[in-house]
Design goal:
Layout: H1 3-17, H2 21-39, E1 50-51, H3 56-61, H4 74-94, E2 98-103, H5 110-122, E3 129-133, H6 141-145, H7 153-159, E4 168-169, E5 175-178, H8 187-192, H9 194-206, E6 211-215, H10 224-228, E7 234-240, H11 246-255, E8 261-267, E9 278-281
Parallel strand pairs: 1-4, 2-6, 2-7, 3-5, 3-6, 7-8
Antiparallel strand pairs: 4-5, 8-9
Helix pairs in contact: 1-4, 4-5
Length: 293
């Protein structure tokens, strides 16, 4: 039995029977440790997001892999678990905190990848995961989640107000999201402003050992991703087999070549696990062209 088959079988078993006591105890201990760390954060800086309930049917329709995903989604859960593990290993090795998620062109699945990756990362419980929707010309994180927040990230970048109040908690108490529902044509200017740096600092100061995922527009559509790339630790590029052209992906990677590439996620590849597929390619010389399947 291959490693992927073993992972899938384990995932199916957990979905049928629930996680083992040992796994549950480990998660409880990690949550307890995180709570202790959170208590040490200055109360004036601590981010306390508003918990928001999600529409389970809508999330399934949008292919979000929430806790208790259907057995048929076992392949997707296993794929994201593998992507999560590889990315967290690299983040730990290089001391990354901020990871941007982009693509060459539209409809490559970058927002869905960012959301499901954030959900998968949050399951480890030991740290807080923050997803920022910075695709400000076409904000879709909240639309995909089906929620309507009282405060929008765009408003913070415009006027600097209500920074801590714009975060919502979804799926897990250690997964926070901030984004917008209305687009703006001033995205590049807002992303280049000092308030972007203020926002990252606010998140780092107000959360426990965070990983900050930043959903950005496609590289070939606007310069927004290139504006943010110098401000983050690494960039994860999403491509879609059958949709992203080799020339388009090559051009996007060339534009990003002066920045650290965390890897390339290939969605819908026919060479990998059926039902939901992806490949992961790292720019690490020791693992170049290593497909994460």
């Amino acid at each position: 039995m291959s490693i992927v088959e073993q992972a899938l079988e384990k995932s199916r078993a957990e979905q049928r029977n629930g996680p083992s006591r040992r796994a549950g105890d480990g998660g409880a201990q990690r949550s307890a440790n995180r709570t202790k760390q959170a208590a040490a954060i200055d109360s004036t800086l601590r981010i306390r997001p508003q918990a928001v309930a999600l529409d389970a049917d809508l999330c399934r329709e949008h292919r979000l892999l929430l806790h208790g995903a259907a057995e048929k989604d076992g392949a997707a859960v296993a794929a994201y678990r593998m992507l999560r593990t590889r990315l967290l290993h690299r983040a730990h090795a290089h001391q990354w905190t901020t990871i941007a998620v982009t693509s060459a062109g539209p409809n490559d699945g970058k927002t869905l990848t960012a959301l499901n990756l954030a959900i998968s990362m949050a399951r480890e419980k030991s740290r807080e995961i923050v997803l920022l929707d910075m695709d400000m010309r076409n904000p879709s994180v909240y639309r995909t989640l089906g929620i309507h927040p009282a405060r929008e990230l765009r408003q913070y970048l415009e006027n600097g107000e209500h920074g801590k109040e714009m975060f919502v908690s979804v799926c897990s108490d250690n997964l926070m999201v901030a984004g917008s529902t209305s687009p703006t044509e001033q995205a590049s200017e807002l992303l280049a402003s000092p308030r972007f740096d203020d926002l990252i600092r606010l998140v780092k100061q107000g959360t426990v050992d965070p990983i900050i995922l930043i959903d950005l527009p496609p590289v070939l559509l606007t310069d927004d991703a290139l504006v943010v790339a110098p401000k983050v630790d690494a960039v994860l590029v999403v491509a879609s087999e059958g949709l992203t052209s080799k020339a388009g992906l090559a051009k996007a990677l060339d534009l990003l070549s002066e920045f650290r590439i965390a890897g390339v996620v290939l969605n819908r590849t026919i060479e990998t696990v059926p039902d939901y597929n992806y490949g992961y390619y790292s720019d690490d010389p020791k693992g170049a062209a290593d497909k994460g399947t």
